[in-house]
Specification:
The protein is of the alpha+beta class. The chain is 36% helix and 19% strand. The protein has 16 helices and 20 strands.
């Protein structure tokens, strides 16, 4: 009897899907992770065709790209779109999922609505008919990976700055401390939109060019260590202005991807002789990521990340607080801005007692960090007890999921 159950566990493949509002991080637990856009696209040229997920690479001219997102304000609301994306991901082109032999680990946002959870259970068990499933918050997976790598630590606080929100979630012994969770309503989407507005106001109408400006943001933006000092540099008129740079926009015929003009080719006064379309960027480069640290700059009345981290930790028992300050873990795409980690460190350092040790850890790939945690979790001996099998779901329905999943 023992041998048969063992072989069943071996046959079962585990698919890990960290389903974000912008990208889905997906892969089998014995394989590598793929980062695929979790949305559909329509292009200006092929109006009638909808491109799903990684089909974005087939679009010849992504200017004026129209996004159809399954997530709004961080929660999964558009099931039709999400289903089409999942059909594509699970289908024969990509992951060729054999549902009856596959267990899925899937992430969902904190404080997810019951109705969304029920719909997700139905779709996983009744439509796709997975063998078993585990629904979990991405931070739980990140914390799990952190604790596996640092077995001596008992506490950590995960700063997950993604597309819709930034969440700050404290964990103690792999359990999240709900009373310490803070959400800052600033994410990558807001930053890209704000950059679109600034550029449209100052030089070139780009309100429709989400795709292109998102690329600009990723290429040129950085976090200032001293905002006012950088502002002074950005005001200078000549070559001593080290902040200013020229970005060559793609035209999608000869220039497929935008790039930063090398400093020696920059023309500081007058126009370029070449026919390229140029964006001249100065203080936008650091003023846009600054919003994550000071949302009040654009009238969002909330704490920035450093204050939110301190606020979160102060909501926890006093004797635990020092342990959290020395285990601050950064995950999510926004943490890839150059200077992000150092700025979080210096700002939080200013707000904490000097006798507390402090450390801010950023992983090599903050986007796939939670996915890697899911991979480790699926290799855990306890994994079989954490999931809900299809048989259990058919017997007990939604209530068994509520009992078992810590979300």
């Amino acid at each position: 009897m023992i041998s048969s159950s063992l072989t069943q566990a071996e046959i079962l493949k585990t698919l890990i899907l960290d389903c974000g509002a912008y990208t889905a991080k997906i892969g089998y637990s014995n394989d590598e992770v793929s980062v695929i856009p979790n949305c559909q696209f329509r292009s200006k040229t092929a109006r009638l065709k909808t491109f799903t997920a990684n089909q974005i690479d087939e679009i010849k001219d992504p200017s004026g790209l129209f996004y159809i997102l399954p997530f709004q304000k961080g929660y999964l609301v558009n099931w039709d779109v999400q289903r089409q994306i999942w059909d594509h991901l699970f289908g024969k082109e990509l992951f060729k999922v054999d549902f009856a032999e596959t267990s899925i680990v899937i992430t969902e946002p904190y404080f997810n609505f019951d109705t969304i959870q029920e719909s997700m259970n139905e779709i996983l068990f009744e439509e796709y008919q997975f063998q078993s499933a585990l629904r979990v918050n991405p931070g739980t997976l990140s914390a799990y990976k952190y604790f596996q790598q640092n077995p001596s630590e008992l506490c950590c606080i995960v700063v997950d700055s993604g597309y819709s929100f930034t969440h700050i979630v404290p964990f103690c012994r792999n359990k999240k401390k709900t009373e310490g969770i803070v959400r800052v309503n600033v994410g990558g989407k807001l930053l890209t939109n704000h950059l679109k507005e600034i550029i449209s106001y100052r030089q070139l109408h780009v309100m429709d060019e989400t795709y292109v400006i998102n690329q600009v943001k990723e290429d040129v933006c950085y976090v200032a260590q001293d905002f006012y000092k950088e502002m002074d540099i950005a005001k200078l008129k000549d070559e001593s202005n080290t902040v200013m740079l020229d970005y060559v926009l793609p035209d999608f015929s000869t220039i497929k991807k935008g790039f930063i003009k090398p400093r020696e080719e920059m023309v500081f006064s007058g126009k370029y002789k070449t026919g390229e379309q140029i964006l001249r960027l100065t203080n936008e480069r650091f003023a846009v990521p600054e919003i994550v640290f000071h949302p009040s700059d654009i009238g969002i009345q909330e704490m920035g990340i450093p204050e939110a981290v301190v606020f979160s930790i102060q909501n926890l028992p006093e004797e635990m607080q020092p342990h959290f300050f020395k285990n601050i873990v950064l995950t999510g795409g926004n943490t890839l801005f150059p200077g992000f980690r150092d700025r979080v460190y210096s700002d939080v350092r200013c707000l904490t007692p000097t006798d507390f040790e402090m450390s801010v850890v950023q992983s090599d790939n903050p986007i796939t960090y939670a996915w890697e945690g899911g991979k480790l979790l699926s290799e855990n001996d306890d994994f079989e007890n954490m999931v809900v099998t299809r048989d259990e779901y058919e017997e007990h329905g939604h209530s068994i999921c509520e009992e078992k999943f810590d979300v």
